[in-house]
Amino acid sequence: MPHPDIVVVPGGPGQTPQMKNPVLLDWLRAADAGSTWTTSVCTGSLLLAAAGLLEGRRATSHWLALDFLKQFGAEPTGERVVLDGKYVTAAGVSSGIDMGLTLLGRIAGDEHAQAVQLLTEYDPQPPYDAGSPQKAPAHLVEEFRTKSRFILS
Asked: How much of the chain exceeds pLDDT 90, in percent?
């Protein structure tokens, strides 16, 4: 798609090698030049950052990758959804739903976003309160930091 109105960049395990893919990075820059919204979920923000699109902007990513945003001149935050101009970044996978509703509210209005939330029955009530490194048991956080593919060097 040469001229998208909304760009949504997913993250995941395949994102790391794509951070040096000139074809993808050039496409992101070109698509962003005409987009109304440029967004990402999870480590997709690292792709936007690698393309130079988040320099000087607030952004978020999966907690294990958050500090990597600094290497590309972005200002990492621990928020679930970050809006900075036309850029909307979401933290981990589940925050993509929050991002979608946030963006929908901006585009179609709060009531429309509330209607979608109601009709999809998005009413999160997780059985555990361990959805962020600040809340999870410390030994789990350390285990995943140790095993992470995002080791800062």
From this structure: 88
State the pLDDT at residue 148. 84
> What's at 78, amino acid-wise?
G
Residue among 54, 66, 55, 1 nearest 27 (CA)? 1
Residue 42 falls in the annotated catalytic set: yes
* Residue 153, pLDDT above cutoff 60: no
The whole-chain average pLDDT of the chain stands at 94
Bridge partners, residue 90, by sequence? 41, 81
Phi, psi values for residue 40, rounded to 5°: -150, 155
Catalytic residue among 42, 48, 59, 82: 42
What is the CATH code of the structural domain delimited by 6-147?
A: 3.40.50.880
Which helix H or strand E contains 42, and what residues bound it?
Answer: none
Buried b (16+ CB within 10 A) or exposed e, 4-34: eeebbbebeeebbebbeeeebbeebeebbee
Q: What pLDDT score does 151 carry?
A: 55
Residue extents of the structural domains in the chain: 6-147
